[in-house]
């Protein structure tokens, strides 16, 4: 009897093990599937797969962390808080968790938790970038009570017509309201909502619309997010943002600016603006009142951190100049977005880097002689949610967008009306204008040293320096390879040309943009800061790649195309300079593709790309025998994205590159 009982116990234990093994398999499969969604940026799908596992609280499972990250990365940071806390309780090792908890708590109005989490985060000694952001957030927390008390003489009305979908960036055009809405038929997997498009609806009254309709079939792409249009004041030109198709084959995986011209009763086929950076987020455009300047937001390299506001001059023929960062008084290490310029020249925008009640808050920047002041617009225009995309219908009224509590959807539209004039409705004091705060001063300097690739200094180098394209100075390096320190002013860019017999002539540049110390972090009235800047020179050698000597960025091509894009033309102009500076050197231009399509096809495509770039260079006066096109197809991938490997577009883009190496020294 005892033997039989023991056998039964062993059988029971065996079945329990089987049940455990097979019972865990679905969990393991679900987790694996959810992580794959996350890696592809399909955050809503990742949440749906991983949230049930996160709610179970299985020991050792990281689902809660990836659910939190998915909410944050799809712009729903408030929903991420309990999952970050759950992940933290399980010992997740991401140093940024406390920082994300702080911002999530702030978005929900829990300032005590926000302060606690920021303090813990700073104690973990994060890198300099996040340290600055956390210190600014911590300092700004103390200003929230005064911001909440700031009442503006504005009455706010939710738009009768908001839906559970996303509606934002409204502007009145004639008797209709034009806005961006998630109303396309296809779903954007990042947030689980339909793709964004441009829609218009008749206004019954200022805060009520009837059924919306598609604004234009020409400004419509089914599987992309379109939105935030800026119209010239004569109504003949529109610039809008397009991107985020969510597909791995998207040639520009982020957001770019597009332009279209009025064509009878409709619009021309949109074209990508050359000022867009193909590997950056460029969006929320706005024209100045005289149409001579385009403002937009971007996270391109060289900014102050996060999204910054830029301006671009527009000439009489409609050509766009070089984007210029608006500087550290307006831009912060946080995000600045949705600029709007009123008739009297005031710049309105949203930011989470300036002191804010919640996430993004609304601000106005105005100039008094040479001083720029930035003022918070107070409540009710601002809330603990994201408040953004202000647009004035007249000096007394307009529209904003917000995801504040009590709305109908992810983002909603609100109409506001003031009893005062525009000069005063955004100010606490309706009888006076805010006096700009005195700015602390920083004396910037640049210490240049010329070295070989191995770090050895090079004396006797002639260094020509041009500041902002003007006023050239010539220096000679001393025995330590150094020149006299160069004093810098805000926004300065210095271009260097270096020459010495026996060395490859080099060019380099240093920009102060993105390096200036935020006012909020300055403790003294006067601060001296010197930047150390090393420039590399080398001797010519067959087979040497020259990118490091001319600060060359990668040249990108659109998928399956060999055309020279505007961003590639900038880099090819540097090659023209190199060949002019070094007449003794001949180059090979080697073009590469990613692994998609057949090897034979890619070989021909890469050759076309190389020849296209060579043609561009020859048209600028370089002799044909000095540069040779060479296509390598997919034979020299620089990452693991070979045939059959599922990679994001950014990694495929790395393989679609062009390299320049020395093949002859005369």
TrEMBL record:
Query: Localized where?
Result: Cell outer membrane
Report if keyword Membrane is assigned: yes
Q: Where is the OmpA-like domain?
A: 544-666
Q: Which InterPro entries match?
A: 6-blade_b-propeller_TolB-like, Bact_OuterMem_StrucFunc, OMP_bac, OmpA-like, OmpA-like_sf, TPR-like_helical_dom_sf, WD40
Pfam families in alphabetical order: OmpA, PD40
Q: Name where it mostly resides.
A: membrane
| Keyword annotations of the record | Cell outer membrane, Membrane
Q: Which PANTHER family match?
A: LIPOPROTEIN YIAD-RELATED (PTHR30329:SF21), STATOR ELEMENT OF FLAGELLAR MOTOR COMPLEX (PTHR30329)
The entry's protein name is OmpA family protein
């Amino acid at each position: 009897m005892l033997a039989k009982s023991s056998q039964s116990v062993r059988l029971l234990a065996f079945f329990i093990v089987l049940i455990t093994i097979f019972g865990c398999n679905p969990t393991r499969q679900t987790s694996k599937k959810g992580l794959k969604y996350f890696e592809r940026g399909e955050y809503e799908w990742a949440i749906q797969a991983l949230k049930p596992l996160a709610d179970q609280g299985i020991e050792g499972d990281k689902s809660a962390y990836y659910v939190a990250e998915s909410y944050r990365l799809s712009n729903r940071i408030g929903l991420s808080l309990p999952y970050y806390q759950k992940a933290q309780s399980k010992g997740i090792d991401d140093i940024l968790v406390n920082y994300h908890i702080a911002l999530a708590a702030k978005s929900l109005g829990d300032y005590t938790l926000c302060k606690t989490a920021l303090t813990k985060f700073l104690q973990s000694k994060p890198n300099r970038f996040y340290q600055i952001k956390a210190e600014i957030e911590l300092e700004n927390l103390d200003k929230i009570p005064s911001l909440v008390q700031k009442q503006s003489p504005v009455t706010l009305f939710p738009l009768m017509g908001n839906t559970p979908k996303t509606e934002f960036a409204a502007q009145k055009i004639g008797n209709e309201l034009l806005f961006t809405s998630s109303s396309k038929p296809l779903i954007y997997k990042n947030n689980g909502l339909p793709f964004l498009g441009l829609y218009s609806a008749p206004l019954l009254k200022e805060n009520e619309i009837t059924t919306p309709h598609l604004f234009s079939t020409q400004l419509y792409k089914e599987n992309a997010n379109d939105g935030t249009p800026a119209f010239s004041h004569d109504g003949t030109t529109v610039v809008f943002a397009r991107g985020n198709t969510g597909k791995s084959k998207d040639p520009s995986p982020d957001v770019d600016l597009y332009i279209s011209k009025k064509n009878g009763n409709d619009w021309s086929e949109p074209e990508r603006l050359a000022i867009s950076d193909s590997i950056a987020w460029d969006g929320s455009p706005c024209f100045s009142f005289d149409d001579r300047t385009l403002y937009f937001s971007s996270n391109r390299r060289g900014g102050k951190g996060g999204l910054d506001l830029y301006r671009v001059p527009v000439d009489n023929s409609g050509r766009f100049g070089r984007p210029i960062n608006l500087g550290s008084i307006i831009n912060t290490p946080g995000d600045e977005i949705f600029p709007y310029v009123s008739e009297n020249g005031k710049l309105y925008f949203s930011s989470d880097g300036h002191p804010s009640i919640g996430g993004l808050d609304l601000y106005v920047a105005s100039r008094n002689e040479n001083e720029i002041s930035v003022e918070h617009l107070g409540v009710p225009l601002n809330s603990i949610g994201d408040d953004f995309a202000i647009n004035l219908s007249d000096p007394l009224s307009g529209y904003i967008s917000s995801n504040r509590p009590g709305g109908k959807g992810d983002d909603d539209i609100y109409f506001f009306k003031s009893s005062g004039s525009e000069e005063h409705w955004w100010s606490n004091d309706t009888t006076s204008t805010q006096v700009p705060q005195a700015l602390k001063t920083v004396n910037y300097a640049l210490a240049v040293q010329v070295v070989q690739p191995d770090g050895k200094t090079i004396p006797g180098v002639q260094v020509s320096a041009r500041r902002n394209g003007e006023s050239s100075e010539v220096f000679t390096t001393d025995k330590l390879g150094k020149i006299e320190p160069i004093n810098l002013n805000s926004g300065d860019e210095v271009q260097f040309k270096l020459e010495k017999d026996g060395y490859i002539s080099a060019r380099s540049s240093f920009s102060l943009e993105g390096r200036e110390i935020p006012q909020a972090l300055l403790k003294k009235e006067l601060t001296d800061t010197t930047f150390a800047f090393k420039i590399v020179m080398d001797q010519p050698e067959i087979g040497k790649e020259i990118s490091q000597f001319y600060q060359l960025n990668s040249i990108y091509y659109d998928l399956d195309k060999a055309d020279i894009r505007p961003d590639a033309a900038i880099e090819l102009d540097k090659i023209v300079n190199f060949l002019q500076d070094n007449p003794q050197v001949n180059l090979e231009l080697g073009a590469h593709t990613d692994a998609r399509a057949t090897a034979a096809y890619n070989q021909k495509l890469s050759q076309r790309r190389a020849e296209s770039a060579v043609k561009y260079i020859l048209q600028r006066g370089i002799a044909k025998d000095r540069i040779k096109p060479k296509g390598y197809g997919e034979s020299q991938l620089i990452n693991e994205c070979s045939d059959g490997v599922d990679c994001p577009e950014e990694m495929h883009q790395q393989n679609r590159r062009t390299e320049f190496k020395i093949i002859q020294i005369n």
